[in-house]
Specification:
The protein is α/β, with parallel strands linked by helices. Helix content is 43%, strand content 17%. It has 16 helices and 13 strands. The strands form 2 sheets. A 7-stranded parallel sheet has the order 3-2-1-4-5-6-7, with helices on both faces. Strands 10-9-8-11-12-13 form a 6-stranded parallel sheet, with helices on both faces. Helix 1 links the parallel strand 1 and strand 2. It is globular. The two termini are 16 Å apart.
């Protein structure tokens, strides 16, 4: 029997937390029973394209986020759904455009329309407010709902029932320590053995608060002169250049390393001595799960749900208080947690747990609507 096919609806499949979680599930499920296809809202090459195709998925790319041509988008959606009667389940991770694709899917006879909340707030700008307005129509078109945390579900779905699904990772991969890999990566980055390497992983966007992160690190450097900072992630070139200029204006010079998007993330957690996450808002960040599983001390904005902490190496700090961050970091022990993987598994963050839940859900719902 051929596997059932589930359409994952995304903005695109670049290297971000939401995308990484979906790929973690895709790698882990039994693809003889459940296969994924992907619908993007940008027509561009993406970080995970090649791996998706290697795993057996098909990718469909529309241009609506580039040309804002909604009439064409709706025509293309209708044609796409009509051409793929095998899709009995769609799983929407793009809440803003759900007000468009959910009604089209319903009229096309797709009986299971799943929504997934990955965040607890919207960016504090015009685009964020438009996303909030559009996302307010998302829940009404759904038959089933998932969220990465209780707060994320309440934010997007209100009083509608939803299932909290942990953002699972491959805990064995991220907990594995490799001294040689650490030395090689620190050498590649130009970080000496006697320097303290702080790390951050996140796309360059307003939500991740890179200006605040650089100001925090500047304050840390006054207390720990041998500190270095590596920033991993992509984004708009103009915004990255703006952050590079800010780093120079803060006198950080070569102490900040802009490392771009990398595929060997577990190695970079090996290279780090501590992890910083001063985001303006988050759902349940995959990178924080990864960093904790690697055993790293984590210094995190108090805007992040405290339920995301499963080790005692996490300190929540006030968002706009650089001095408190710097004093706390300078006075903290930067020892790793040797038991971090067990704690991650016990807290439900192993990807096998998350994938089993989703796979069982897809198979059950498919059986219900095809009997």
């Amino acid at each position: 029997m051929a596997p059932i096919r589930v359409l994952q609806i995304m903005p695109a499949m670049d290297a971000g937390g939401m995308e990484t979680f979906v790929m973690n599930v895709y790698r882990t499920i039994d693809r003889n029973q459940v296969q994924f296809d992907f619908l993007y809202h940008y027509d561009k090459p993406c970080f995970f394209d090649d791996e998706i195709r290697t795993l057996g998925g098909s990718i469909y790319k529309l241009t609506v986020r580039q040309d804002n041509n909604l009439p064409r988008y709706l025509r293309e959606l209708r044609a796409l759904f009509a051409a793929h009667p095998e899709w009995r389940i769609i799983h929407g991770h793009y809440s803003g455009f759900g007000m468009f694709y959910n009604p089209v899917a319903r009229r096309a006879g797709i009986p299971v329309r799943v929504g997934h909340s990955h965040n607890t707030a919207y960016e504090p700008n015009l685009v964020g407010q438009l996303d909030r307005l559009m996302s307010s129509r998302f829940s009404a078109g759904l038959t089933d709902r998932f969220a990465c945390s209780q707060k994320a579900g309440e934010m997007l779905f209100g009083q509608s029932p939803f299932t909290v699904l942990p953002n699972g990772i491959d805990t064995a991969r991220f907990a594995a320590r490799d001294a040689q890999r650490r030395a090689l990566l620190r050498g590649e980055l130009g970080v000496a053995d006697n320097e303290i390497l702080f790390g951050h992983v996140g796309r360059f966007s307003a939500q991740k608060n890179h200006p605040g992160l650089l100001k925090i690190f500047a304050a840390v450097r006054t207390r720990l002169p041998k500190a270095r900072l590596v920033l991993l992630g992509g984004g708009e070139p103009g915004y990255i250049e703006e952050m590079q200029n800010l780093a120079r204006s803060l006198g950080l010079g070569d102490s900040v390393i802009f490392a771009g998007v990398r595929s060997n993330m577990q190695g970079f957690y090996d290279a780090m001595d501590a992890f910083l996450l001063p985001s303006l808002f988050e759902g349940l960040p995959v990178v924080l799960v990864e960093a904790q599983t690697a055993g790293l001390p984590c210094f995190v904005a108090d805007t992040v749900d405290k339920g995301a902490a499963f080790t005692d190496r996490v300190r929540f700090l006030p968002l706009h208080d650089e001095a408190t961050w710097a004093n706390t970091i300078a006075g903290a022990s930067l020892r790793r947690d040797p038991d971090a993987r067990r704690k991650a598994v016990d807290a439900g963050y192993d990807i096998h747990h998350s994938a089993e839940i989703l796979q069982a859900f897809y198979l059950r719902r498919y059986a219900e609507v095809t009997q």
